[in-house]
Specification:
Layout: H1 9-25, H2 35-46, E1 48-51, E2 58-61, E3 66-69, H3 80-99, H4 112-121, E4 125-126, H5 128-132, E5 138-149, E6 155-159, E7 162-167, E8 172-173, E9 178-179, E10 183-191, E11 194-201, H6 208-215, H7 233-241, E12 247-251, H8 258-271, E13 278-282, H9 294-310, H10 313-318, E14 320-324, H11 343-352, E15 356-358, E16 363-367, E17 370-376, H12 379-385, E18 387-389, H13 397-408, E19 437-441, E20 447-451, E21 454-458, E22 470-473, E23 478-480
Parallel strand pairs: 4-5, 7-11, 8-11, 12-13, 13-14, 14-15, 17-19, 19-21
Antiparallel strand pairs: 1-16, 2-3, 5-6, 5-10, 6-7, 9-18, 10-11, 12-22, 16-17, 20-21, 22-23
Helix pairs in contact: 1-2, 9-11
């Protein structure tokens, strides 16, 4: 086991303490610690990846004002009610964090004059039901609603209480990429059944720190435990002292291209003396579709990669390999979340490599106290193609995109006809509360952006972009290119 390679007695003691804590957190009625439980605890201490279908489902209960556990085994193909539920739950999440923001609920400063001024400056959210029931013109109204298509043409605003036609001809759009199915804060005038928007912006994003201050240490990220690891003192200490930990992210690793395998050999050679904690290989794994031969070719490519990894025993024994499928890889098509690569083509590599995971897309990794999400989809291009308003500073598209997904709290802010989602698993695309690191593997230039207390990176295309990749250092939370 990798943890037994430590020769430093102090580090070994730290590791053993972490394993003991992980064993104590396991839900087991037996007092016997078998090999399976021990290996599970060790893997958890180092880093663990979660398939999105196994991520916990929580929903925000508007009456109790807290998160409750949902159905743990939902049907893959849900009913019409499930389709409505996925949007309703998104709305409730965004609404509860919006009304807690200082713009809508200013905190007290203790100074009466200051508090009175802040109360005068605050906004008040209205439901669309309120507008529809009004018989007079409503001026300077602010609503939180989703942009949809109106049945008579044009756009509409829709929340859980109703729908109203939307006029955006004179609207001032704030920063971000606005598409259908996005929830927005719209300010304007309601008259004669039409909402004339004067300004449209996104709801304010909420950093993870603010979320945990309000809701405690509930674990919405994933894994078998109900409490978040963010508040573990020992894990935090191990994370900060383990300065040698490193996660390597490579996207578009075309295993059918000899030039890619040559560069991987160069990469492994460079890291052979000091193996990173994990190599996260992100699809697509083939450069082109091969039709009915695709599964066979993919299996052969994985076998070739396994042979290459075995040439470097130090990496094979000490580095973890995580495979995140792309949108064109073997398996189900373009519906999110996407399941892992089929076991029929991954059986050999699982047998030959001691530390390997074939994850879903998106994929979640827990490293000590840090939460990491990897998502492979050309979402930036899709969102840009479906924008109802193009930002003036079009050169800064990644920043607008990051602003969009942090405000929406989801990796896929598009309508279902543009980007299909399994309704009962839409919660698996959630980015609320924001993770520490979100890897957005897109066909776009590499970028690194910080927002709402989170770091967003795009490693770029390894095969297309001159074999670029990015290395993340958890101890310092820095990215190396």
């Amino acid at each position: 086991l990798q943890i037994s390679h430590e020769t430093d007695k102090e580090k070994l003691d730290e590791n053993l303490q972490l394993i003991i804590e992980a064993l104590q957190r396991q839900s087991s009625s037996s007092t016997i610690i078998d090999k399976g439980r021990l290996e599970s605890a060790i893997q958890e201490c180092q880093h663990s990846s979660h398939d999105e279908e196994r991520a916990p489902k929580y929903y925000y209960n508007t009456e109790k004002k807290k998160f409750l556990s949902g159905n743990e085994n939902p049907d893959t193909f849900g009913s019409a009610n499930d389709k409505a539920s996925c949007f309703r739950e998104r709305y409730n999440l965004i609404y509860q964090r919006t009304i807690r923001h200082d713009l809508f609920c200013p905190s007290s400063t203790g100074n009466k004059s200051v508090d009175k001024y802040r109360q005068q400056q605050q906004f008040e959210l209205k439901y669309i039901e309120y507008l529809l029931s009004s018989s007079k013109i409503q001026d300077k109204v602010v609503v939180l609603a989703m942009i949809t298509r109106h049945r008579e043409g044009g756009f509409a605003l829709e929340d859980i209480t109703g729908t109203v036609k939307l006029d955006i001809s004179k609207a001032l759009f704030h920063a971000g990429l606005f598409t259908e199915a996005c929830f927005v804060l719209a300010e304007g005038v309601y008259d004669d059944g039409v909402f004339f928007a004067s300004a449209i912006g996104f709801p304010p994003a909420e950093p993870a720190e603010s979320f945990y201050q309000h809701f405690g240490d509930i674990n919405l990220f994933g894994g078998p435990f109900s409490r978040s690891f963010k508040f573990s003192v020992n894990l935090k200490a191990f994370e900060e002292h383990n300065s040698g930990a490193m996660l390597i992210f490579l996207s578009d690793v075309w295993l059918d291209q000899p030039s890619v395998l040559d560069k991987l050999r160069v990469l492994f050679t460079g890291y052979s003396n000091s193996p990173p904690t994990a190599f996260i290989l992100i699809g697509n794994f083939l450069s082109a579709p091969y039709g009915y031969k695709e599964s066979k070719i993919m299996k052969e490519c994985l076998e070739t990669l396994t042979d290459l990894i075995c040439e470097f025993p130090n990496i094979k024994e000490r580095s973890h390999f995580v495979f995140v499928p792309g949108i064109h890889d073997v398996g189900f098509g373009n519906v999110l979340p996407r399941p892992p690569l089929p076991e029929s083509i991954t059986a050999e590599i699982r047998e030959r490599l001691p530390w390997v995971d074939f994850s879903s897309n998106p994929c979640r990794i827990q490293y000590c106290t840090q939460e990491i999400i990897i998502f492979r989809e050309d979402m930036i291009g899709k969102v840009c193609r479906n924008c109802i308003h193009i930002p003036e500073d079009g050169e800064d598209i990644p920043s607008h995109f990051i602003r969009t997904i942090t405000a929406q709290g989801t990796l896929c802010p598009l309508p279902l006809n543009v980007s299909p989602v399994y309704w009962n698993y839409s919660y698996a695309l959630s980015t609320y509360p924001p993770p520490d690191l979100l890897v957005l593997a897109n066909n776009y230039e590499p970028f690194e952006i910080s927002r709402a207390g989170s770091l967003f990176i795009n490693p770029g295309s390894f095969s297309r972009n001159d074999f670029s990749f990015q290395a993340y250092l958890p101890s310092s939370r820095q990215v190396e290119k």
